[in-house]
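WARN  no MSA supplied for this record, continuing single-sequence
INFO  ligand: arginine
INFO  echoing inputs
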Amino acid sequence: MANSLWAGRFSKEVDSKVNDFNSSISFDGRMYRQDIKGSMAHAEMLGKQGIIDIHESEKIIAGLKSILEDIDSGKIMLDPNAEDIHMFVEQELTNRLGDTGKRLHTARSRNDQVALDIRLYLKDEIDEILPMVKELMKTVCDIAEKNLDTVMCGYTHLQRAQPITLAHHLMAYANMLSRDVDRLKDTRKRMDRCPLGSGALASTTYPIDRKLTADLLGFEDITQNSLDGVSDRDFCIELASALSILMMHLSRFSEEIILWCSWEFKFIELDDAYATGSSIMPQKKNPDITELIRGKTGRVYGDLNTLLTMMKGLPLAYNKDMQEDKEAIFDAIDTVKLCIGTFIPMLATMRVNKENMRAAAAKGFINATDCADYLVKKGLPFRDAYKITGTLVARCIELNTTLEALPLEEYKKLCDTFENDVYEAISLDTCVNMRKVPGGPAPESVMMQIEYIRAFFLDM
Ligand code: ARG
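INFO  complex generated
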C-alpha cells in the first residue's frame, strides 16, 4: 500500500479517487531506470560517508540492481497503485530487503529525487534526439549533393523571385537543423547539474558528499542552491522551446513538400510507401506524413505553453503543480522523435522532377534582376536598368512571351546597350552559376555549404 510510507501522520487512508488523482506512475514510470540509477548512487554515497552502514549500502545497491533487472526483463510490473515511480521502487526495495530498504531515503526527499530523475531522463533523450537530427541533416546533404544543378525557382511572398537550385533550397533547412543541434546541446549543458542533496528544499544536516553523487551519475557539476535545485524546471522549458523551434522547421519543410506534391507544382513525388490514397477519390495521393508533422507542431507548442504556464505562478520551492512537467515534456519528445523518424525515410525516397522544376523556373521572369544587372555591368545606374527591365517585362506580358524569347529589336527599342550577349546573361544557368559568393546558389558555393555542415555537424 503506497500510503503506508507516510502512515505515521495520517489516521486514515487517502480516498481512492484522490489516490488516482495524485498518482503519476502512469507517466513517470518511464523514468524507472534513471530513478534506480540515482538511488544506487545515493546509496553508495551514504555508505561511503558512513551515514548508513557500508554493508547495508551494498545490499541496497544489489537490491536496486535486481529490481532494475526484473523490470527490464518484465519479471515485475510497475504497480499502478503506487503514487509514483519513486514510491514504487522504494516500496519494492523494502519488500525485498526489509529494514535495510527503509534506510535508502535517508538525507533525500522525493523533491530532489524527481528533480534528479527528470534531468537524467532528459539528458538521455537529448542523446537520442541529437543523432536523429544529424541523420536528417545527412539525408538533406545527400539529396542536395545530387541536385547541385537542379535549377528551380526561388520564391519570396510565394511569388517567383530568382533562380536557385534545389540543393541551395535544401541546404537552408540543413542550416536551420544545425542551429537545432546547437540549441539541444546548449540545453543539455545547462541541465547537466545534479540537484541531489537539495533535500525537500533546505538540503540536509547529514554529511553528504554531493560531488560524489554527481560524479557517479556523470553530471558536470552540482546545483548551487537547494531551493532552486528542487524547484527549477527551466531545463524542461528550454528543451520544449528547442523542440518547438525544431518542429517549426520540420513544419515549414513539410509545408513546402505539400505544395511541391500538388498538381500545380509537381516538383516532387513521394514514394508510395510514404503517401496515402483517398477512400473516395481514386486519383488521390496525399502527403499525409507532412500534414501530420505540420499539425503535430501545434502539440509541441502546446507542451511548451503548458510548462511556461505551469511555472509562472509558483512560489518557491517544490509544488505539486510541477508533477505536470512530465507529460508535457515527454509528449514533446515523443512527438519530435516520431516526426523525425518518419520524415527521414520519406525524404530519402521522394523523387525529384527536375524538368518540372526547371519549367516553372523558366516562367515568371525570375531572371529580370539579372537582366537589369546586365545593363549595370555595361555602365547604366541600377535604378535606370531596373526601370528599363520592368518595361521589358511589361512588354513580354503584352506579347505573351518571356525575356529569353523576346527578340533583340524589342530590347533595343528600349535601350541600345542591349546586344546579343543578353541571352547568355539571362539564361537560368548563368543566373545560378554566377551567384558563386559564399552562401549563394552556384554549385561550387552550395558544395561548400554541404562540406561545412558535414565537417562541423556530421563528422563529430
Ligand atoms: N510525483 C512527484 C512529481 O512528479 C514527485 C515529487 C513529489 N513530492 C512531493 N512532496 N509530493 O513531481
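Residues 24, 28, 84, 110-111, 114, 318, 320, 322-323 surround arginine (CB under 6 Å).
INFO  checksum written, moving to next record
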